[in-house]
From TrEMBL:
Molecular function (Gene Ontology), one example: structural constituent of ribosome
Function per UniProt: With S4 and S12 plays an important role in translational accuracy.
Protein name stated in the entry: Small ribosomal subunit protein uS5c
Keyword Ribosomal protein among record annotations: yes
Length: 176
């Protein structure tokens, strides 16, 4: 069910793609039922770039190709710490699916389930805790993980948005 493939992009970056789910869907039309396939894919380079895509076609190969092109259109950059984790705990939402992501100690690995695990692994995160809440929908859980990763901020980004220096940010957090 899960395929791995290395493909080259225009920038000569090695993108790794994984098919999360291939679903056979039917549509009732005048002459009977029309059969098609829906593929959910994640594409990432293990260096902080990740995208989720969906493709629908009459055959599986066409659905996967459309999913790859959709995922490439929705690529985001995420900050990764030196310990291959995330800078701070975060909460992500997509539809009814919610996900909690927490940074973890070095060597703990990716502790996550379902589609969120694949998203985190392809993003290049190696130490993280994740919990999916609210929904078992594969696509929404993958999008919730992407939403959480998109909202991550580094200390320098936070200091810039507050118009203070990085050292002042650390002093404020130590006083509390």
């Amino acid at each position: 069910m899960i395929k791995k493939k290395h493909i080259k992009n225009k920038e000569e970056i090695n993108w790794e793609e994984k098919v999360i789910q291939v679903k056979r869907v039917t549509k009732v039309v005048k002459g009977g039922k029309k059969l098609s396939f829906r593929a959910i894919l994640v594409i990432g380079n293990n260096e902080g770039q990740i995208g989720v895509g969906v493709g629908k076609a009459n055959d599986v190969i066409g659905a996967v190709k459309k999913g790859v092109s959709d995922a490439k259109k929705n690529i985001i950059n995420i900050p990764i710490t030196k310990s291959y984790s995330i800078p701070h705990p975060i909460y992500g939402i997509a539809g009814a699916a919610k996900i909690i992501l927490k940074p973890s100690a070095t060597g703990s690995g990716v502790i996550a389930g379902g589609s969120s695990r694949i998203v985190l692994e392809l993003a290049g995160i190696k130490n993280i805790l994740a919990k999916q809440l609210g929904s078992n929908n594969t696509l929404n859980n993958a999008r919730a993980a992407l939403n959480a990763l998109q909202n991550l901020r580094t200390f320098t980004q936070t200091a810039d948005s507050r118009n203070i220096s990085l050292s002042d940010l650390y002093q404020v957090s130590n006083e509390i």
